[in-house]
Every structure is written in C-alpha cells, then in structure tokens.
Specification:
5 copies of one chain form a homopentamer. Chain A is of the alpha+beta class and 333 residues long. Chain A has 10 helices and 5 strands. In chain A, helix 3 crosses helix 4 and helix 4 runs antiparallel to helix 5. The N and C termini of chain A lie far apart (69 Å). Chains B and E meet through loops of B and loops of E.
Amino acid sequence: MAEWIDLLDPTEEELRGALPREIHDRALEQLLTPARHDDEPRPRLEGHDHYVFGIFLVPICVREEDRVFYQEVDLIATRERLVTVRKTPELGHPFDPSPVRDSAEAAKATRAGYLVYLLVDLIAEYFLDLIDALNDEIDELEDGIERWTAGQIRARISELRHDLLHVRRTVAPTRDAVHQVVDRRIDVGAGPELLPREIELDFADVYDKLLRAMDGLDLSRDLLSSARDYHQAKIANDQNEVTKRLTVIASVLLVPTFIVGLYGQNFRRITELAWGFGYWWSWGWILLTTALQLGFYRWLGWIGGDPLGRPKLPPLRKLDPRSIRGRRRASST
Amino acid sequence: MAEWIDLLDPTEEELRGALPREIHDRALEQLLTPARHDDEPRPRLEGHDHYVFGIFLVPICVREEDRVFYQEVDLIATRERLVTVRKTPELGHPFDPSPVRDSAEAAKATRAGYLVYLLVDLIAEYFLDLIDALNDEIDELEDGIERWTAGQIRARISELRHDLLHVRRTVAPTRDAVHQVVDRRIDVGAGPELLPREIELDFADVYDKLLRAMDGLDLSRDLLSSARDYHQAKIANDQNEVTKRLTVIASVLLVPTFIVGLYGQNFRRITELAWGFGYWWSWGWILLTTALQLGFYRWLGWIGGDPLGRPKLPPLRKLDPRSIRGRRRASST
Amino acid sequence: MAEWIDLLDPTEEELRGALPREIHDRALEQLLTPARHDDEPRPRLEGHDHYVFGIFLVPICVREEDRVFYQEVDLIATRERLVTVRKTPELGHPFDPSPVRDSAEAAKATRAGYLVYLLVDLIAEYFLDLIDALNDEIDELEDGIERWTAGQIRARISELRHDLLHVRRTVAPTRDAVHQVVDRRIDVGAGPELLPREIELDFADVYDKLLRAMDGLDLSRDLLSSARDYHQAKIANDQNEVTKRLTVIASVLLVPTFIVGLYGQNFRRITELAWGFGYWWSWGWILLTTALQLGFYRWLGWIGGDPLGRPKLPPLRKLDPRSIRGRRRASST
Amino acid sequence: MAEWIDLLDPTEEELRGALPREIHDRALEQLLTPARHDDEPRPRLEGHDHYVFGIFLVPICVREEDRVFYQEVDLIATRERLVTVRKTPELGHPFDPSPVRDSAEAAKATRAGYLVYLLVDLIAEYFLDLIDALNDEIDELEDGIERWTAGQIRARISELRHDLLHVRRTVAPTRDAVHQVVDRRIDVGAGPELLPREIELDFADVYDKLLRAMDGLDLSRDLLSSARDYHQAKIANDQNEVTKRLTVIASVLLVPTFIVGLYGQNFRRITELAWGFGYWWSWGWILLTTALQLGFYRWLGWIGGDPLGRPKLPPLRKLDPRSIRGRRRASST
Amino acid sequence: MAEWIDLLDPTEEELRGALPREIHDRALEQLLTPARHDDEPRPRLEGHDHYVFGIFLVPICVREEDRVFYQEVDLIATRERLVTVRKTPELGHPFDPSPVRDSAEAAKATRAGYLVYLLVDLIAEYFLDLIDALNDEIDELEDGIERWTAGQIRARISELRHDLLHVRRTVAPTRDAVHQVVDRRIDVGAGPELLPREIELDFADVYDKLLRAMDGLDLSRDLLSSARDYHQAKIANDQNEVTKRLTVIASVLLVPTFIVGLYGQNFRRITELAWGFGYWWSWGWILLTTALQLGFYRWLGWIGGDPLGRPKLPPLRKLDPRSIRGRRRASST
C-alpha cells in the first residue's frame, strides 16, 4: 500500500518532510533547483540503495510564439512511497499528473512501482500523441505544397523541423532510461524489488511505445526532408517556367516592334508604303508572326501547360500482397 | 500434431476460448485492441514460459489515394496449438493467410513451430515482392526522366520515397524479431522446444530473406537519390539552356530593330535614304547580321543542339571478369 | 587535507619540486611542452599507480578576428596533493581557476578528489555557458534571416559553424574522459581511493552536464542547418521573384513601344494619323494595355505581394498534453 | 587429396551424385534453384557438421545496355571433395573458374580447403580489378568534366553511381562471410579441420583484399560525390555567366536603339537634324557608347574571361614529409 | 641490443639473409612484391610467434600533377633485430627513415621495440604535419573565397577534398593497427615481451597523435564543407544580383526608348511637336524618368550596394569564460 505525495515547486522543508531520510544530497539539490529555460536537466532514472530517482521532461510547443518549453517531473520512489516533484516552467504551466491518479484508482493499484509505471506510461503516451499531431501537420504541409506560397512553406518547414528537433532531444534519453528498467538494471539496492517482474513487463510496454515514438520521429524527419526536396525541386522548376515566359514575351513583342520599325524607315522608295492597303499589310505580318510564335511556344510547352502529346505516366501498381504475390517469380520465367 | 486456429477481429470470449490459459494479460489486451490507423504496434516476437507471442505488420500502399495502411497479424504459439489473430485495418482489408494453409498441407507439416515459420516466411516473401515491385517502378522512373514533365517526376519521386519509408519502418523490426529466433534467444521456457534446430534453420532462411529485403531497400533508396540528383542536375542545366535561348532571341531581334531605327532618323542628309535600292540595302544588313549571329550561336552550341566538334565521350568498359582480369597488374608494369 | 599547487607555465625545476616523485617521464614532458597553436593535445584522464593525470582544453572564440584558441589546463592528483599546470596560449591569456578556489573554500572541501571534481565541473559549466551563448546567437540569426542581407547571413552562418566545430572537437574527448571516472575505470592504482564513491556521484553530475553539452551541440548544429536551408530556399525563391519582376517590366514597357512604333510608320494611308484626337487615341491604347497588364500580373501575384485569394495557411496546433491527450485515439474512432 | 567437381546448372540427379549424403535439404534446394534476375541470394558461408556451404556472387556490368547481372557460384566443401555449382544467369554467361584450376595445378595444392581459398581469392581479386576499373573511369570523368556536355556528365555520373551501388551490395556480405573464416567461426563440425591454421592465414589475406575493396568503394563513392559537386558548382556558375552575357547584350543593343529613336522624333526644331554631319554625329554617339560599355563590362570580367587584375591563386604546397617535416613546430615558434 | 637492418627494394636473397628464419611465406611474399600504384596493401600490424610484422603507408600529394602516391614501409621486428623494407613507388621516391636513426642515437635506445615506436611515431608526426598543412590551405581558401574566381575556388575545393580523402584512407587503418598495441593485443608469442609496458606507454602517445590526426581530418572535412556551402550560397546570391542588374538596365533603357518612340509618331496633331522647346521637353522627361528609376532601384538596393537603412548585424559575443560565466543562470532569473 504505497502513498503518493505530489509536490509542486516545493520548498526545502516540504521536500525534507516528504522524502525518505536516505536521500542523497545531490538528488535533493536537483529537486530544489527551480526550472530554468535552456538549462533543463537530462531525463534519467537512477537506482539507489533505498530509492529510485527519476527525472522526466515533457516538451510543450507554443506555436504562436515559435517557442518550446519543457515541463519537468521528478520522482523519488521507495517501496512505501512515491514522491513526485513538479516544477513550474519559467514560461508556462506545470505538468498535470491527474490522469495517473485516475488510472491508479481505476486499476485499484497501489504499489509504488505500478504508480511509477503509470506516470512513465502517461509521458510515453504524450510523446505518441505529440508525434501523431506532428505527422498530421506534415501531411497537411504536403497537401498544401502546391497551393501555399513559397514563404509560407519555407516557414512551415522550419517550424516543424524545430519542433521535431526539440522533441527528439527529449525522447531519446527517456527511452534509454526506460530501457534500463526493462534490462533489470534499475531497482532499489536492498530488500524486495520495487519493480518486480510483472511491472517490468509493463515497462516493456512503455519501452515499446518509446521505440515507436523514435521510429515515428525518424519517419517524420524523413517525410519532412521529402517535402523540402519536393519544394526545392518545385522552386527550381518554377524558375525555368518564369524564364520561359520571359523568353516568350520578349520574342512575341520584339518581332512586331521590328516590323513597325521597318515601315518607319525614311527611304525614298519603299514599295509597301505607297500601297493603299499598306497599313493592313503591316498588321497582317504582325498578326501572322505573332500567331506562328504563339503556336510554336505552345507546341514546345513553354506556355499554356505541358507540351502537347507528352507521354502518359504509367500508373503506380497497387502494392497489395494479393496482387503482387508470386509476381517476382513470374516476371523472371 | 498442432491445431491452427485463425481468428479475424475476435471478441474477448472467442479469444479466451482459443488461447492457452497461461496467457499474460498484456498480450490479451494487445490481441483485443482493434487496429487503429497511425497507432500500429511494433513488430516483435517474445518467448514466454508456455507460449511464443508475435506481432507482425504488412504494409499495403494504396497508390491512387497516396495512402499506406498496415495489416496486423498476431500469433500465439504453444507446442499444441497456433492461434493467429488478424485485424481488419480501418481503411482496408485484413491479411490473407491462405497460402500458409496451402503450403502446410503441401508439406504435410503439422508442428506448430513449422506453421509459425510458414507464416513468417510468407510475410518475408511479401516484403521481397514488394521491394521488387518498387525497384521496377524506380527503373521506370529512370527511363522516363528525360521524357516526363518535371511535375510528374517530382510527384513520382515523392510517392516512391514515401512508400520506401513506410516499408522500411516495418521491415527493420521484423528482421530484428526473426534474428532473435536464429540466435536461439526465443522459445517457450519450459519443456521440449517449440522451435527445434531444424526449424531454426528454416528461420535462418527467412532471416536471409529479410536481410536481402533490407539490402534491397537500401539499394532502392540510393537509386532513388541518384534519380533525384539526375533530375535536379537536368533542371539546373535546362535553366541554362532557356537563358541561352532568351539571350539568342534578344540578340537576334534587337540588332534589326536598331538597323531599322537607324534609317528612321530624320537627319537632313543620310546618303542611304536617297538611294533607289536603299530599302534593300537595309534588308541586306538585317539578313546578314541575323545570319552571322545565328551561325555564331550555333557554333557556341547555344541553339540547335550540342556545340560543333564536341569531344566524344570514351565508352564505358564492360566490367566482366574475363575482360578486366589481370588488368590491374598489367596497367602498373 | 590535500594541498593545491597551481603553476602557470612552470619551468622544469618548479615542476619537479611540485610533483610527486613517481611521475612518468612522458607526463612530465607533456607538462613542460609550451602550448602551441594547432598542436593542442587531446583532452584525457589517465589513472597511474600513484597519481591521476589529466589534460583539459577550453576553447576561446575571439570573434572579431574569426579565430579560436585553446587554454590548456593539466592536472596531477595524488591523495595528498593536486598540482594544476596552466599554459599561456600563444595568442591569448591562460585559464582562470579562481572560481574553483572560491567553491572549495565555500564548501570547506579539501580532499584532492573533490578539487579535481570542482575543476572539471567548472570546465563543464563553461561548455554549457558556451553552447547557450551559441544558441542565443543562432536564435538571433533566425530572427534576422528575413532582414539582413544575404552576405551578412552567409558570413554569420559560416562563423557560427566554425565555432560549433571547434567546440565539438573539445567536448567529445572531455566527455569520454569523465565517463571513465563514472565507470570507475580511473583511479590511483594503490591504496585508498582518490575518487571514492561519493565523488564519483559528483562526477556523474559532471558527466550529465557534458552529455547535455553534446546534446546541445547536436541541436545547435541541426538548428544551424535548418537556418541555412531556410536561407537557401529564400534565395532560390528571391531569384524567381526577381525574374518575375523582369518579365513584368519587359512586358509592360515593350507593348507601348510597339504602339508608338505602329504610329511611326510611314504608310501613305493610316486612318488614325489623320484623326484630330489620334495622339490621344494612341495614349489611350498605351494606358489601357498597361493597366490590363498590371492587373493581370497583380492577379498572378508576380507584383505587389502574394497572389490574390491565396489559401490561408491552417494554424499550427498547440502541442500541449492538455490539448492533444487522447487525440490520437479519438481521431481513429 | 581432394577431388573437385564443377557443375554448371546441374539437374537434381547430377547434384545428388556429386554431393555428400549428409547435405541439408535447404542447401540442396538452393543449389537447384535456377538463377533469377533480381532474386539473387545473399553471399554467405555456413559451417555444418560434415561440410561447409557457400554462396558467392560476381556482378557483371553490361554498360552498353546499362544493366547489371550477377553470376552465382555455390560451393559444398568436405575434407575429401569440393563441389562447385555455377548457374547461368538469365541475361548472361556463367562464371569462369578456370583460373582456380590453373592456380591449383601451379601450386600442386589438392586440399579442399585450399581450393576454397583459391576460389574466394579469385572472386576477391575480381572485386579489386572491378573497383580499379571504376576508379579509372571516375578519373576519366574528372578530366572530362570541363569538356563534355552537361547531359553527358550527368548520364556518366548516374551510370557510375549505379555500378558502385550494385558492386557494394555484393562486396559487403562477401567480406562478412570471409571474416567468419578468419575469426575461426566457420569449419566442419566434426573431425580434423577443413580450414586449418595455415589456410586461415590465406583467408586473412583474402579478407584484407576485401577490406581494401570496401575502402576502395568508399573512396570511389566520395570521389564521385566530389565530381558531382564540382559539376553542380560549374552549372550554377555557368548560369551566372550566361545571365551576364544577356545583360551585356541587352545593354549594348538598347543604347543605340535609344539614340536612333532620339533622332527619329518629329519635333519641329531639333538642331542636330539640320547639321550636314548629323548622321555621323549620331553614329559617333552610337560607337562611343558601345565602346565605353564594352570596356566597362570587360573590366567587370563579364565578357572576355576573368576580371582584369584578378588575384593570383597561391600554389598548393607539395605534401611530402621531406618538405613539411617540422613545419608544424617551426610555424608556431 | 637490437640491430637495425634497413633494406630498399631488396631482392629475395637480401631479404632471406636479413630476416629471421621463422618468417611466414605470405609475409615474405608481401615484402618482395614491388610497390604498384593503386594496388597498395592496407596498413596493419600483426603479432606472430617469433616476430611482429607491420605494413605502413605514407601518402605524398604531388599537387602540380594532381596526383597522390603512397610510400610503403614494412617492418619485421624480433627481440634481436628490426628489419625495415622500404619500396620505391612507381611514381616517386621512397620513404626516408633517417630521422628515426637520429632519434635512436639521440636517445641511445637500442631495443627493437623502441625502434618500432620511433618509426611509427615518425609516421604519426608526418600525418599531423600533413593535416596541419591541409588546414592552412583550407584557411587560405576561406580567405580567398570572396576574391578568387568561381572556377579557381571550385578547383581548389576539389583538390583539397581529394587530398583529404586519400589521407583519411591511410590514417584510419594505421590508427587501428596502433590501437592493437595499446590494447596489448600485439606482441611476439613466445618469451619476454618485444613491446613491454613502458614502450606501450610510448605507443599510447602515438595512438593519441593518430586520434588527433583523425579529429583533425574530421574538422578539415567539415571546414571544407562549410567553405563549399559558403561558396554555393555566394553563387546563388550572385545570380540574384546579376538578374537585378539586368532588370535595372532593361527598365532604365526601355523607358527613354518609349518616350522617343512617342514623339516619333506621325499623327497630324501632336501639340508637343510644334513647341520650340519640344526637343528639350522630350529630354526632360527622359532624364527625369531615368533619375527617378535609378533612385528607386538604389533605394531597393538593387544597384550600388546594400539597401539603404539596412539593419546593423549585432556583433558576435566574445566566447571567453570570463565574459560568459554565469551568463546562463543570470539570463534566466
């Protein structure tokens, strides 16, 4: 029957009252240090003789202000007691542990080790939610890449990349800490186990979630790179298109300018000038050359969309076992 | 003589009826969770005291909708019984295990371990088919890169890259799971082996297939990067070509415009204006300068294809042992 | 009760007077070698039979001169005595160890091992301060990337990258050296420990700081790459914008030039020339075509900002556990 | 005295006649499977109780058709007998083992293990020849990069990159297989060794060749990247040069056009028009402004080669120990 | 008292006379093989029963010819004798071991192990000198990147990158070989040690030098990448600048051309044409529009340097512990 004491920004006396006596000075100091922006500790779990000491961080991305802050949750677990210490970040609100309490009551579980599991699981769940939300936004970016302006896409890629980097920085050490529990390298040193075999199985489940979070982050990073490459290729191609337009405009406007210049010459004898329909003769050449040029550039595909008669792209195959099974063998016999 | 029970989206009662009694709660929970998009578990194999528990995923790429979903197949194997649990994905159809049944009947094999092997082998075969189909499409992309439009190529590269990333995400943990069997790290804890030596040799074969799948994925990724680089280099070069065309057009059209402007001046005494053949004199200069310019730009290679007299590319050597054997030594003596 | 002897660029006699007799020749030689630019030793810690020998480097970036130099601090620690040897760099001032002395006095700590800890901790703190300062400057760069000129940004990215590379070169081996203490692989060979368990816990704290420093460096490098990519995308896009401007200008100026050329022709009969309001007719066409063109290019978004009616970018979600918790599950049911 | 049986695309009966009885079914199946394009097995070596089983692949690049196929050579070695099974690729000719026979006769060596060594050594030698031939072609590419057209270079880089990727795919697992022999992890399980100590030394030599092959491949890949970067930088710079030419042409042709337009105005009183030498006055301005412009652009270096008075590049130092020895120390004292 | 025999391109008899009898055939063969370009062995050290066998390579970059060759130095060390075999490269001069002889005489050291150390130390020193010389040239490149032409910079980057790649190829296996000595994994198999503890300390020093060489190579590679990125960003930006110039020229020259065309029209009644000061009226408009345009483009920063009123770049902080110490804490409180 373990007791759970949850402290928010505790003073030294509060802490000393709640913690077991054997607590190490350095851990105490860490628990007392107020949260400082850009000076967050590294997530970790440590087994000591009489207690397990843990530090966890949860990243919060405040998108409007393009800012990330970290909520710190520390824990000291003995067999009889779990003390969690939450710190209010300089620029935001502290972590909310109420779902853990709800789950513990629902499961009627009271062992300290199980409470630790519930807390770490909540954090892992949050990471999965976070990466899922990021992936949705990357999907949105990919959908918008043909419609949004270059400046918008550039800024969005940069924001998502920042968020991924800040999240990755936190997930990796959290995963390493949980891995130590799964490997049975962390427990209290003396007496019956704080984290017995069945709770370690629970931790294996958390570890699996954190592995999925890392896989998901890797996938997100690669999808974002893919979106960036797509965007860069589009800009490079747009440049070609704009230059083609410029060429068409220069060519289409300079030829009539030459023609009217031709009949602006002051030679004594230019036959066409004397014709009654001379003016329309000039217009005729202007319209004819312009039509021919426009037709030519349309045929090249420099204006009005893709070149005429462009090859059709073969459709992509559906990659379903039912349709491709045995294909490999079939195609080589 | 093992019994094979195949369940599709089972209810809790169905499951409890089919599974051995010693099953762990967490595994049961995993088997009951319906498949959720973007929340797939990680492929894995676990040895427990009385059973082996496995989760496998098969990616399906629905190309028309640029979408990937995963079919989940879970298994619980004891010495007497193999229970497979298939889940219907939210956005598609479940995995079809009938080839395993056919193979098992053909081989008259009934041991549970062998059935597990057949199932994992089917999945590995699917991965090889999948990567083979992807490679064929990358080949097609490379062939089309000179003919298709930039937008088509850009989109195709992006689609293939997405598919590769989603497949890779599944192959790597599957390979790790099978590696544990080859290393004899997975089996039931008590009694005779579920996966004896000869079945482990079969698993070594599956492991080899998954290694080839990973090698193939790496090759695909590099070939795709190569295609992307080729495409980028082509766009950069096309930009040069378009700007050269623009320069030629500006140059070829501005010189005649200057000439006709010259004879449009109103000076009192311009000798040429008084000549009877003055108009043809003007045309003569126009045609001469244009011909000279076109000849010059053709010689530069800015229009009409490559520069004249460009160096021939030396042919690539045939890299066949019969032709290059001993070449290395010969060339240095 | 350990004695601390601090030597600055000592002579051989001074050194021999201060050091324990058992010191190895090679260590002595290292302590006597004057600091040479571009020939700094590698940071390390070595346990010998009677003493612990350490070399540490602190990078100083002199930004005005785009130059980095390293301050070398060596130490020889026995149970009775700590000898630190500081070297004056060729191009700067030596390391200042006074904060260690202050901390030691404040903590009333006199054991040699604790003094070693204080020294290494001071260096680790400096690395954290350094990376923090670098991160602030990267933030500044990101804020300025839309306002500063391309040359300024290019130079700033290059300077920050140099600094990161030079700092990384020093942090990595320092971290490895401290890791050996944490792993209990370094101590004097004989007699009671120089670095007992409680000091090793202190070193674990230093190691954690150095790990955070490495994480911070990785983050800085990725943020800098992100800033570089952003800048490159901006330049590529600016190129498009400039070419669009050029196209607009060519198009808007060449049409009126054609019109005035049209009425500069010398045909015998051009109806408009005889009209009394002919000149204003010409002006009318000039103004009309110019207005139409400007309107068209404005609609395209080639001048005057983004295209009209461009799609709004969906806002980024706030990534806070309170708002996204359960989102993953909810979105798939 | 070992017997060597070499089989080309054997039938099942031929195989069963030649192989030892204890052969595993899976190996037999592998030996019987005909070579299929894009479904090659992975190179490997396996030690079994009574025999060693090996699979090797040799890549052949058919450059004219931009195609790669693999020759498969399998081997079963017992102490008394070496059976090699060669397969005819779908698209080419099988491997030619005659050099092994020649070497074996020359060395009068008849032990099965030594024959295995000779075969693997032949394959390793082929890899070295192959990489050497690739490196020669990369050298050729680098020499031609200033002379060939962009399309030629782009295609050549892509072809060489494909060849490197296909070779790498085969060398890496071959190296791993041979490493197992050097580490004494592969041999027949029972009785005297098939691969005794002195043959393992021979294998160490083969392993060294394969390591050199991998080093060579890495070097080739980096040299090819370097060539690609060089080419990209050249294209980017050529773009600048072309745009500079365009600017010069526009500027040089538009100023005379303005001048002749100036004197084409119909004002009542333009003094110059009345001058007898007015026409030459106009030509004078045209020639003067053109000469000034050409001089200005030549000075800028936009036409006619590099800017005048460009700084000389300092020569690269010769990096020879005789010339740079002690330089480091000298430069800092 | 060990004897040192130094042989240059020895014949088989010379070698057999100098070497211990127990030498392995393969080593003898290696020592007799003449040095062949592009077929250098891999640097290594091997311990055998009665001797230690080593192969070392020293890269020489002949910059004028853009060529690298390798000097090979092999050694056979027993307790009584050190035999070094130097080979003359096909394209250069052999390695000069005289500094080793001088050092040995200076140190009055005659043990074979110490001679081996001196030789390896000389090679390590050469690598450090080499990397130092390369770094100086990269510094020079960075200084010149704003002054030299693009072609010069491109070629210089390519040359330096080649040199780095060729040096890296040799340093890495040399470091691995020396690491084996430090780890006490290499020595003669029987009798007293060839490389006793105190010589191993010397080798630790050589290992440290080789580690610094690798660190230095990594730094060089990153600095070279940084220079390449800087150069690419500059070219991309220059392209923008050139296109801006073109736009300014087109705009500034086309407006006057329009104005003079306007007054070249032949309408019956154009008021301005009849004015006595009409010609100056036209000039007035030409000068006014040109001045306004030049002013506008100057304000934009498209000509004449950076935009007016551009923001000042904040200066970089000096990263010195004295100035930033405590900054981190201060900034967050």
